[in-house]
Q: What sequence folds into this?
């Protein structure tokens, strides 16, 4: 499949065109702004990424969409002037209304009953979703098989794979695609740039056509609906720097 690397010189015109438009810039957090860490609490942005993200957020409407709980995400972005944060795969944002919380409690009770007690397996209950982390489990195949059995009976849950994790979100609930397009409308933007690294980001990659959405998958592995790629998370700083340079050159500043 074609791998259009957004940092390659032949594609900078596409990035420049979006940067010059009335664009919303949006990022996933884990694996995109912050390197994947051995445990979820340990994932932090590099100081250079933090500085560059702050510079981007002063020049563009800028949002972060994450699978993390909103409180957790808010703590991680403290001091960075992003315009809007959305947690829990698109469900949790200031003013959001959702009735999926009772379903989530049922899923967790079911998983606790069905899954064998395995060292390193972590079930994280959030308000609107559940993330089952298995990065630290030794026998991953056994756990994934048990998990597949357990979720088969959860008819109202949508199962989305993540980085050494499995996410359950409600079928009727929002996703990152809905969250991205809502944020674009809220900030009255015509276009969006979105970068993310895993399966939960595919909804966002598919939420707009190539004219209005520049989609960037972080990492070269696997198939993706994204039009462009970064080779790895380490390249996020270069992307942020290009966004800063492009808007400083164009002289267009975000109005807030
Ligand atoms: Mg991610």
A:
């Amino acid at each position: 499949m074609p791998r259009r690397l957004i940092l390659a010189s032949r594609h900078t015109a596409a990035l420049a065109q979006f940067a010059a438009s009335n664009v919303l810039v949006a990022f996933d957090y884990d694996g995109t702004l912050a390197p994947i860490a051995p445990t979820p609490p340990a994932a932090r942005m590099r100081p250079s990424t933090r500085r560059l993200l702050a510079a981007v957020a002063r020049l563009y409407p800028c949002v972060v969409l994450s699978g993390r709980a909103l409180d957790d995400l808010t703590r991680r972005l403290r001091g960075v002037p992003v315009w809007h944060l959305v947690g829990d795969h698109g469900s949790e944002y200031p003013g959001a209304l959702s009735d999926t919380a009772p379903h989530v409690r049922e899923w967790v009770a079911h998983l606790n009953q069905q899954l064998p007690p395995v060292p390193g397996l972590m079930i994280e209950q959030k308000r609107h979703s559940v993330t089952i982390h298995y990065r630290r489990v030794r026998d991953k195949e056994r756990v994934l098989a048990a998990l597949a059995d357990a979720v088969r009976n959860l008819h109202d849950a949508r199962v989305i794979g993540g980085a050494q994790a499995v996410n359950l979100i409600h079928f009727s609930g929002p996703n990152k695609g809905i969250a991205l397009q809502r944020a674009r409308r809220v900030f009255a933007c015509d276009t969006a740039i979105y970068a993310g690294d895993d399966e939960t980001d595919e909804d966002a990659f598919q939420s707009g056509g190539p004219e209005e959405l520049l989609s960037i998958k972080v990492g070269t592995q696997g198939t993706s609906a994204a039009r462009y790629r970064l080779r790895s998370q380490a390249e996020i700083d270069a992307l942020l720097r290009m966004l800063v340079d492009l808007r400083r050159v164009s002289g267009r500043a975000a109005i807030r």
About this structure: Residues 101-170 form a domain with the Alpha-Beta Plaits fold (CATH 3.30.70.1020). Residues 28, 30-32, 196-198 surround magnesium ion (CB under 6 Å). Helices lie at 12-20, 47-59, 70-76, 101-114, 140-152, 176-186, 202-205, 236-250. The first strand starts at residue 23 and ends at 27.
